[in-house]
Write a structure and sequence with these properties.
heterodimer, A: mainly alpha, ABC transporter involved in vitamin B12 uptake, BtuC, 13 helices, B: alpha/beta, three-stranded antiparallel β-sheet, 9 helices, 9 strands, 32% helix
């Protein structure tokens, strides 16, 4: 354990301990010993589950981001930039507009996942026609994002648009209040996802050296890249169905991890991204709830406002 | 494992049968354990040739048989390819924040345990190789903190460290200073009979001094393949590189 790891671990514990105390309703420390008090119930039945969901989502977003960046050998690649998040969102909005399926129902999720898979299929066709180039992947993502956003706004113009409680908050990304049992599922699910990615991370290490070299390291570029895309898009579909599109976590966190920790393998990068992503989203959530309580800013706005400048600083430092 | 020979039969690779400009035709035998220099002007097909050898190009016709294998290389599994080849591309992709040691470990990627542990034997191999190849002082440095020449040596090191029977190198001495160029060629020469090594290069004098066989490509055709003395007596160099005289 080096000093940086210890500092981040300490920060992590500090944030985890502090964030549940922030929010609209002040928590009285004295009442915490009384299980029937309001403070106690808010703390354990609302804020702790919310924290667990936040940590899970932040971790998953950042580890998916680091996977995409390595798969495509480009620091700009993440589900948000490639349009995969928008595809899920469009599916969810289609399900809501035409089939009256509220977000969170199985059909709504299937629509989102289905659209994400269709986009990935297009991406596969687009990239397999010529020699693989990460620039083309980024351009594909830009094109896809433009078209998907236009379609989303087209659909939304039929609906009542409202920020905060309405559909528009999906664009900015937000964190849900959930029951404890659901939050525990999120926690387990995200850990399982991290472990699976870490166990099967070796092909990603090989792909970072280029497709031809990857083959001489025993990895089939096409098969492994596509398997990771399909597997992670399932997880992206889940996160978007829960929290909308939260930007910048997947883009910035892996970059910052590389700079701070110099991970020696994809496996360490995944773990570091997960922890730092969880930390970053929790901080953003704490901020979003304490600027003007009881108003809660969409957390995606905060991550973008924090992440954008951070991203520019890393770019500046790199050059 | 013994170094394999290569048999290339009636090979034609390219993007499309209707675009003859991208087609390359070859017919050739390479003996086991040879050090082979591949020379030719820019765009003569050196890179395509190396990539074709490991089945990374689209085969329009013909086949490449490696060692005693009966199956042509383009239908090999990635696992089989990893057991036979290590490859240095002309431009290497790398993660700039990665440290040299972690990068070199990738040479043993197919052999790492489930938890990513490197065997003690491989670990010792890496250390002794780093000493021989004078990379020891870089091990804890990030790749982005090395000069392009130092980095090229690390890339080359990863390829030579990889336990494979055939080494394909695409302009390996780019960015290297004359001392290192010399050392690299001597190192390659010492691999003789252990590994079959093919080097695409513009370093004509080194090829003449160290290689067993020379392959000359021009206009995406194979102009010549033979021993160095045959190459010298037939004055092919004058034909392909008239301005070097």
């Amino acid at each position: 354990m080096n000093r940086k790891t210890l500092i981040v671990a300490a920060l992590f514990l500090l944030v985890v301990a502090a964030v549940p105390w922030l929010g609209a309703e002040p928590i009285s420390f004295l009442e915490m010993s009384n299980p029937t008090s309001l403070s106690y119930r808010i703390f354990w039945e609302l804020r702790i589950p919310r924290l667990l969901v936040t940590l899970s989502l932040g971790g998953v977003l950042a580890s998916v981001g680091s996977t995409y960046q390595s798969l495509f050998r480009n620091p700009l690649c993440e589900p948000y930039i490639l349009g995969i998040s928008s595809a899920v969102l469009l599916g969810v909005v289609i399900a809501e507009t035409f089939f009256q399926q509220k977000v969170g129902t199985p059909l709504s999720f299937l629509f989102g996942f289905g659209l994400a898979l269709m986009l990935i299929l297009l991406l596969m066709i687009f990239t397999s026609s010529t020699k693989f180039s990460s620039d083309r992947v980024i351009l594909f993502g830009m094109g896809a994002n433009f078209v998907l956003s236009a379609l989303l706004f087209l659909l939304l113009s039929f609906q009542t648009q409202s920020v905060g409680g309405g559909t528009l908050k999906w664009f900015f990304g937000f964190l849900p209040w959930v029951e404890t049992s659901k939050a525990v599922w999120f926690g387990f699910g995200s850990l399982l996802f991290l472990i699976l990615l870490m166990v099967f991370s070796r092909p990603i290490d090989a792909l970072r050296l280029g497709d031809s070299v990857a083959r001489t390291l025993g990895v089939s570029p096409l098969v492994s890249r596509n398997s990771y895309l399909v597997f992670t898009s399932l997880v992206v579909a889940i996160t978007v169905s829960v929290s909308g599109t939260i930007g910048f976590v997947g883009l910035v966190v892996p970059q910052v991890c590389r700079i701070i920790f110099r991970p020696s393998s994809m496996r360490s990068l995944l773990l570091q991204s997960f922890l730092l992503g969880a930390l970053f989203l929790s901080v953003a959530d704490g901020i979003s709830r304490s600027i003007i309580p009881p108003f809660e800013f969409p957390v995606g706005v905060i991550t973008t406002l924090l992440g954008g400048p951070l991203f520019l600083i890393t770019l500046w430092k790199k050059s | 494992m013994k170094a394999p020979g290569i048999k290339i039969k009636n090979l034609m690779v390219g993007f499309s049968e209707h675009l003859p400009i991208n087609q390359i035709k070859w017919e050739l035998d390479i003996n086991p354990g040879e050090l082979v220099g591949i020379i030719g002007p820019n765009g003569s097909g050196k890179t395509s040739f190396l990539r074709a050898l490991m089945g990374d190009e689209t085969f329009l016709s013909g086949e490449i048989l490696i060692g005693g294998e009966s199956e042509s290389v383009q239908s090999w599994s990635s696992k089989k390819i990893s057991q036979h080849f290590s490859y240095l591309p002309q431009e290497s992709f790398f993660d700039s924040f990665q440290e040299t040691e972690a990068y070199l470990r990738l040479a043993f990627l197919p052999r790492l345990g489930l938890l990513g542990r490197m065997s003690q034997e491989n670990s010792a191999q890496l250390d002794s190789f780093a000493r021989d190849f004078e990379l020891s002082s870089y091990l804890k440095k990030r790749l982005q903190d090395l000069s392009s020449g130092e980095r090229q040596r690390v890339f080359l090191g990863r390829v030579l460290l990889q336990p494979s029977q055939m080494v394909l190198l695409d302009e390996p001495t780019n960015h290297l200073d004359p001392n290192v160029v010399e050392k690299t060629w001597v190192f390659l020469k010492n691999q003789k009979n252990k590994k079959t090594v093919l080097v695409a290069t513009h370093d004509l004098s080194q090829v003449e001094r160290h290689c067993d066989r020379v392959i000359v490509l021009s206009g995406r055709e194979m102009l010549f393949s033979g021993t160095v003395s045959e190459y010298q007596t037939r004055e092919i160099k004058r034909l392909v590189f008239p301005f070097t005289y």
